[in-house]
């Protein structure tokens, strides 16, 4: 098949080394290399719509002259003729707003946009024009123009309010809209700042450019007399933003009824969340909101203060309502520590609000927060009152096996130990809430000062516990065991006090010395009740008859000693002294009395029983055996000497 001659010559021309390229293609190739933008980009960059319409600028000058003339008219009945430029200007503004609404505007509140400024200036002129035309509305021509400008102004306000709301709801809205509507625009055409990572440190996360644009729009809306719509849009958007931030922290508005229905485990977690949320509000959110409000309404600072107060007041009320609802739940001892955490949060953060809020609002906030804090304090005082009642009502008739530390003692002392970690706070609470009555507790703390209200409360609880333990000791039929029980519990109490500087300081040196003396007395009573009878078997009195040692009496002495010691070992091996130091001191004190006495008695009188079986029958223990068996006492393990020997 023959090819077209023209096609053949073109093909040949491109394949020939000496052939010169045609001028047209060469021109196109050079043009492409010299321009970094494609044709579409170049058209968009050179689009005159990306700059303020020159016709608006020209007509605006005419409108300014007309406004100047109109404002200087003294007699309302003789106004000047309305120039054609008014209708032309209204149409241009209307078209510009329609272009923004339709999304055909090249930018939407960009970082530096002449067109945005031009639109806002045009809206301001429409606003002034509307106000002046209203003054001459008795003239039909002016009434018609007034209706026309009012309609356009209202549309402009609706657009600006919506744009204002959009900027508030999304700090990146300008960049998002620009990229969505004009993805091919280069960054050189409209430089947008990279959005900063959102977080607590830069709350609320608006760029300076966005804040500046919000200020310009808000000023335009307020100047046109639409401040109510502007304030509502701002308040709703920012309130939603704060609520969303609190929601991310886990805190949401909860009714009093819902709080009261919560299980404690769940409510405990909610309180932790509440504390964190309140701290964030006072230290981060509120200060950020105040700065934003002042920046957006820079020309209306008195209004911004009121707006900020109204905005944050609703949030504060929600936060305080939760705390108040917590105080209305049923009291229980386990809630004390979370109540104290909430009390401290309110106490420590409320003074910070003085730096954030106006004096009037800060006073109102302080009053409301103090009221809630007071109720939390009353709940804490009530819990201690409940603790007193629970100690009094613990009247169980079953003694603790082995004379061990009673569960009531462990619970009470551990509870007080943890409570005293809040010593300063509890001192403050009881100072504020508890009426101090003169009583036997109004004694010296050991430092020359009268006991504080919380010290008195602590002593009251300790005395009630002591009385309860005394009553429980009577439940033991064995008097020696009752002394072991009292010794165990008093020792445990003293060790807890020694281990807590806070409790020790609150109880005072005088009280601590008295309780230590009680422990020593219980120790003496135990030794007297248990070992004095045994020691009686090792006395010389009554052994001699007619100046000679009576073997019969001596045998009875050894038999009595063996029987008593066997019984003590069998019984008291099952008794409990769990504290190693106390147990060691007890055994040492027993050994210090028994072993020397037995060794001496055995050394002086065993010769009268020497002689094979007779000696083995009555001399059952060597001094070393006595020491071994004493060491087996108070281990909580029932044992018998017979079983040990098998």
UniProtKB/TrEMBL annotation:
<dbReference type="GO" id="GO:0006887">
    <property type="term" value="P:exocytosis"/>
</dbReference>
<feature type="compositionally biased region" description="Basic and acidic residues">
    <location>
        <begin position="30"/>
        <end position="42"/>
    </location>
</feature>
<feature type="compositionally biased region" description="Polar residues">
    <location>
        <begin position="1"/>
        <end position="19"/>
    </location>
</feature>
<keyword id="KW-0268">Exocytosis</keyword>
<comment type="function">
    <text>Component of the exocyst complex.</text>
</comment>
<keyword id="KW-0653">Protein transport</keyword>
<dbReference type="Pfam" id="PF20669">
    <property type="entry name" value="Exo70_N"/>
</dbReference>
<dbReference type="InterPro" id="IPR046364">
    <property type="entry name" value="Exo70_C"/>
</dbReference>
<keyword id="KW-0813">Transport</keyword>
<dbReference type="GO" id="GO:0005546">
    <property type="term" value="F:phosphatidylinositol-4,5-bisphosphate binding"/>
</dbReference>
<comment type="similarity">
    <text>Belongs to the EXO70 family.</text>
</comment>
<feature type="domain" description="Exocyst complex subunit Exo70 C-terminal">
    <location>
        <begin position="273"/>
        <end position="632"/>
    </location>
</feature>
<feature type="region of interest" description="Disordered">
    <location>
        <begin position="1"/>
        <end position="57"/>
    </location>
</feature>
<dbReference type="InterPro" id="IPR004140">
    <property type="entry name" value="Exo70"/>
</dbReference>
<dbReference type="GO" id="GO:0015031">
    <property type="term" value="P:protein transport"/>
</dbReference>
<protein>
    <recommendedName>
        <fullName>Exocyst subunit Exo70 family protein</fullName>
    </recommendedName>
</protein>
<dbReference type="Pfam" id="PF03081">
    <property type="entry name" value="Exo70_C"/>
</dbReference>
<dbReference type="GO" id="GO:0000145">
    <property type="term" value="C:exocyst"/>
</dbReference>
<dbReference type="InterPro" id="IPR016159">
    <property type="entry name" value="Cullin_repeat-like_dom_sf"/>
</dbReference>
């Amino acid at each position: 098949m023959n090819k077209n001659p023209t096609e053949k010559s073109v093909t040949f021309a491109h394949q020939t080394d000496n052939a010169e390229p045609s001028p047209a293609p060469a021109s196109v190739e050079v043009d492409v290399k010299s321009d970094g933008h494609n044709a579409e980009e170049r058209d968009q960059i050179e689009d005159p719509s990306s700059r303020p319409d020159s016709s608006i600028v020209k007509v605006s000058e005419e409108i300014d002259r007309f406004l100047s003339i109109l404002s200087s008219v003294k007699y309302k009945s003789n106004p000047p003729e309305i120039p054609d430029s008014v209708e032309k200007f209204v149409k241009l503004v209307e078209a510009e707003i329609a272009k923004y609404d339709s999304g055909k505007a090249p930018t939407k509140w960009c970082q530096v946009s002449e067109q945005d400024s031009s639109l806002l200036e045009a809206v301001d002129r429409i606003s002034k024009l509307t106000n002046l035309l209203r003054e001459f509305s008795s003239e039909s021509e002016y009434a018609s123009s007034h209706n026309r400008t009012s309609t356009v102004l209202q549309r402009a306000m609706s657009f600006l309010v919506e744009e204002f709301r959009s900027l508030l709801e999304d700090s990146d809205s300008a960049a998002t809209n620009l990229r969505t509507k004009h993805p091919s625009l280069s960054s050189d055409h409209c430089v947008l700042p990279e959005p900063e990572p959102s977080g607590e440190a830069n709350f609320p996360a608006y760029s300076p450019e966005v804040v500046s644009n919000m200020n310009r729009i808000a000023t335009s809306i307020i100047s046109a007399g639409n401040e109510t719509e502007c304030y509502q849009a701002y308040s709703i958007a920012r309130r939603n933003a704060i609520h969303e931030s609190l929601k991310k922290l886990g805190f949401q508005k909860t009714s009093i009824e819902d709080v009261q229905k919560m299980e404690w485990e769940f409510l405990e977690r909610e309180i932790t969340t509440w504390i964190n949320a309140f701290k964030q509000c006072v230290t981060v959110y509120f200060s950020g909101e105040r700065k934003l409000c002042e920046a957006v309404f820079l020309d209306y600072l008195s209004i911004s203060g009121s707006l900020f107060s109204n905005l944050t007041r609703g949030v504060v009320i929600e936060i305080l309502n939760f705390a108040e609802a917590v105080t209305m739940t049923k009291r229980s001892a386990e809630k004390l520590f979370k109540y104290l955490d909430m009390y401290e949060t309110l106490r420590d953060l409320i003074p910070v609000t003085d730096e954030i809020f106006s004096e009037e609002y800060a006073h109102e906030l302080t009053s409301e927060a103090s009221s809630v804090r007071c109720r939390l304090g009353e709940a804490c005082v009530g819990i201690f009152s409940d603790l007193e009642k629970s100690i009094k009502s613990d009247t169980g008739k079953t003694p603790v096996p082995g004379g061990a530390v009673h569960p009531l003692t462990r619970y009470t002392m551990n509870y007080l130990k943890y409570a005293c970690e809040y010593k300063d706070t509890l001192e403050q609470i009881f100072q504020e809430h508890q009426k101090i009555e003169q009583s036997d507790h109004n004694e010296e703390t050991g430092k020359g000062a009268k006991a504080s209200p919380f010290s008195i409360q602590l002593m009251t609880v300790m005395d009630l516990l002591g009385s309860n333990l005394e009553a429980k000791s009577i439940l033991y039929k064995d008097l020696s065991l009752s002394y072991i029980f009292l010794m165990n519990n008093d020792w445990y109490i003293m060790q807890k006090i020694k281990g807590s500087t806070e409790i020790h300081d609150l109880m005072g040196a005088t009280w601590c010395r008295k309780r230590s003396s009680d422990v020593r007395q219980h120790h003496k009573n135990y030794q007297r009740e248990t070992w004095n009878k045994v020691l009686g078997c090792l006395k010389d009195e009554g052994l001699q008859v007619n100046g000679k040692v009576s073997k019969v009496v001596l045998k009875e002495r050894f038999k009595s000693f063996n029987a008593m010691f066997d019984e003590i070992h069998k019984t008291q091996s099952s008794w409990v002294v769990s504290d190693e130091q106390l147990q060691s001191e007890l055994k040492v004190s027993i050994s210090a009395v028994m072993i020397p006495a037995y060794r001496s008695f055995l050394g002086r009188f065993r010769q009268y029983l020497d002689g094979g079986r007779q000696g083995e029958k009555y001399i059952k223990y060597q001094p070393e055996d006595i020491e071994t068996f004493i060491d087996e006492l108070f281990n909580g393990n029932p044992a018998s000497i017979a079983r040990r020997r098998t």
